[in-house]
Structure formats: C-alpha cells, structure tokens
Amino acid sequence: MVETVTLRLLVLIGREISSLLEQTLRPHGLNETEYRTLMMLFSQSDGVAHPGDLCAAAAQSPANMTRVADGLCARGLITRVASEQDRRRAILRITPAGEALARELLPQTAADIRSLFEPMLPGERLMLLEQLQSLLARIDDRAQAAR
Fold first, then answer.
1. For 96-128, what is each residue's pLDDT tens digit?
2. Rg of the chain's alpha carbons, rounded to an integer?
C-alpha cells in the first residue's frame, strides 16, 4: 500500500511541478517541452543537436519533437538545417534570440525549483535523488527485460 501511495504522490508532484513551470513560461510563449528542448540546446557547448538526440532527454516521440522544433523555429529561437554528412538528418541550432530567452528564463526557473527543495537539508536532497535514481534504474531494467 505504501508503494502505491508513493507512486501516486510522484505522479502528482510531477504534474504540480510542471504546472508551476508552465506558469513561469506562459508569459514567454513557451510550454514545458519547448523550454526543455531550448535548454538542452542552450546547454550544448556548440548549441547544436539532432532532433533524435533530444527525444529521450525531452521524453518526446520523434513526431512530437518535430512539432516542438517547428514551433521553436517559427519563433526564431532555433534553426533547422540538413546535415552536410547525411541530408536525411536535421541539425537544430539555438539562435541568439533563443540564447537570450534561455538566459532570461534560467534564473527564474532555477529559483522556482530551488525554492521547492529549500526546506530539505542538503543530505536529504541527495538521499532523495539517489532513491529516485535507483527507482528509475529498476524501471529501466524491467523495461529492457520486457523487450
């Protein structure tokens, strides 16, 4: 029973954190998936990635990543060009406008997230992180075994 309640709480916490993040992002015309994609490109040393590389990190299907990239391109936050090595692969690159927006949003989103964990001691935060990573590893192992 504890396990069922814990999993339900994890789902609810995820939804609420997403909702809080969306409130911060909405005035900037972004949703959470677009923000994560933009931040992944921003965090790359060269600001470049292939859409397929971003799918797992953004937890999106290739079709949805295409839609996300289309929206970010339309707003001038990223560009998409064909790879010179393989014309079938696209290359996404953050634009100066995308970098500026990432730099503007990062302090606020980081502060929002940090404030959720402030009541916890650093050791408690680390323990929670390790426990969640362990749980995720077991889920991944089970998914791999099912394939």
1. 999 999 999 999 999 999 999 999 999 999 999
2. 18
